[in-house]
Write a structure and sequence with these properties.
Blueprint (H helix, E strand, L loop, with lengths): L10 H9 L7 E5 L11 E2 L9 E2 L3 E4 L10 E7 L13 E4 L11 E4 L3 E4 L2 E4 L12 E2 L10 E3 L7 H9 L5 E4 L2 E8 L3 E3 L10 E2 L1 H10 L5 E9 L3 H11 L5 E5 L10 H7 L3 E5 L3 E2 L5 E4 L5 E5 L3 H19 L10 E5 L10 E10 L2 E4 L8 H5 L3 E5 L9 E5 L1
Parallel strand pairs: 5-6, 13-16, 13-17, 14-15, 17-21, 19-23, 22-24
Antiparallel strand pairs: 1-12, 2-11, 3-10, 4-6, 4-7, 5-9, 8-9, 18-20, 20-21, 22-26, 23-24, 23-25, 25-26
Helix pairs in contact: 1-6, 3-6, 4-5
Length: about 400
């Protein structure tokens, strides 16, 4: 199959095309545990940040009129974080600590190291005499004004976001519902599970476990079911049709090529899926199929070979599910790594080359016997994407497992 026969020239083109057809999931009401979930509404500041003028340094709150060389200036009181500031008496200065509120009468804060400290008094060193109004003071609202947006909708909430939210009194938030995903593996040869011993012609269902393991750690995804269907068109159609009402996305493996038992393309159409692409210029995983239903649900058909299935899930399923989850940054820039011992081989396809990281920003290829080689897959930490017709050390986009 030549590159001209593909509907899209790159994975990114295909991902964007199908993403435009997908709907965002619904919304959960106020969620007290929103870590790892996606904000459906913005978070606003309930007060200025900082809430008052505070000191950026340990030192002394002063009036500029008290900046006199050689004179001893008495210290009266101190301002500490978590307490209201003392009033400044005329002719006196106030000792102050980082984060403490600056007395209203003060013009600036002089750093402690710019003074000569005496008992209950200080003298200014020469460097302090050039202090300007407002120096070493963080003004009220300079981080954010009350009522302003501090986190927009579409943010995938992490620990840093939680800190911001709590700082502004947001202990629970409105979030998008988890994306409901069903995993369906296919194939008469893939029917051996944990409590069974395979015959030489049979395979254990590693795809079922691998795909679930890739998506399950994300709290914004909910796995509705993990199923297996044999190579029978009617059975497969019934399985897919039954899964659609309870799913926002369905991930399938196997049955997407051109063989006599590859029913997935026809069955996807039978249940109302509009096929956006079937076949992309990638290796492994060229027969991949992407479809969207009229109500914006995703059906992604991945090849049955284990490496192809896992690569396709990581490269295509995860960003598309993120799009459905309501994330605004659903397809963030990939990490770039250099490939050690890359060789000079080129492909007319985008090469998803499994690698292992060997140093910061450096990976090396993992020798593989092909897309069915689960031994090499287990030795890898991810894959790099080498564009069609290119070779060498890169840097290339890196996708960790």
């Amino acid at each position: 199959m030549s590159a001209k026969k593909f509907a899209f020239n790159s994975p990114d083109e295909a991902i964007v095309a199908i993403a435009d057809r997908l709907s965002v999931v619904g919304v959960d009401a106020e969620c007290p545990s929103c870590l790892g979930r996606v904000l459906s509404q913005s978070v606003t500041a309930d007060r200025d940040s900082p809430a008052a003028d505070v000191s950026a340094m340990d030192g002394y709150a002063i009036r500029l009129a008290d900046l006199r060389p050689g004179e001893t200036i008495p210290v009266h009181g101190e301002s500490v974080p978590g307490s209201p500031p003392p009033a400044m008496s005329e002719g006196f200065i106030v000792r102050i600590f980082t984060g403490a509120i600056v007395p209203a009468e003060a013009d600036a804060v002089v750093k402690r190291e710019d003074t000569e400290e005496l008992e209950n008094a200080i003298r200014f060193r020469d460097v302090a005499l050039s202090t300007l109004a407002g120096e070493n003071i963080r003004r009220a609202g300079e981080n954010a004004r009350s009522g302003s947006t501090v986190l927009p909708a579409g943010v995938l909430v992490n620990a840093a976001h939680r800190a911001t939210m709590v700082n502004f009194g947001c202990y629970q938030a409105s979030v998008y519902s988890p994306v409901r995903v069903t995993v369906i593996t296919t194939g008469d040869e893939v029917g051996v599970f944990a409590d069974e011993t395979p015959q030489p012609w049979q395979l254990r269902n590693s795809n079922q476990v691998a795909l679930a393991s890739l998506i399950e750690p994300n709290p914004w995804i909910s796995i509705q079911a993990v199923q297996h269907a044999r190579d029978d068109r009617e059975t497969l159609q019934q399985t897919l049709a039954a899964a659609l009402p309870q799913s926002d996305a369905i991930l399938m493996t196997g049955g997407v090529s051109m063989g006599d038992y590859d029913y997935v393309p026809d069955v996807v159409r039978d249940v109302g899926g509009d096929v956006v692409f079937h076949g992309l210029p990638i290796r492994p995983g060229k027969p991949i199929l992407g479809a969207a239903t009229a109500d914006g649900k995703l059906i992604l058909g991945l090849p049955g070979n284990p490496v192809s299935a896992v690569v396709g899930c990581r490269r295509f399923a995860l960003p598309l599910l993120a799009k459905q989850s309501g994330q605004t940054q659903w397809c963030p820039p990939s990490t770039q790594v250099r490939l050690q011992s890359a060789g000079s081989k080129t492909l007319p396809l985008h090469w998803m080359r499994i690698v292992k990281m060997v140093a910061a920003g450096v990976a090396e290829p993992v020798f593989s016997q092909g897309s069915g080689d689960l031994v090499s897959l287990g030795q890898s930490s991810g894959f790099v994407e080498v564009p069609a017709g290119e070779s060498g050390e890169g840097p290339w986009a890196y996708y960790p497992w």
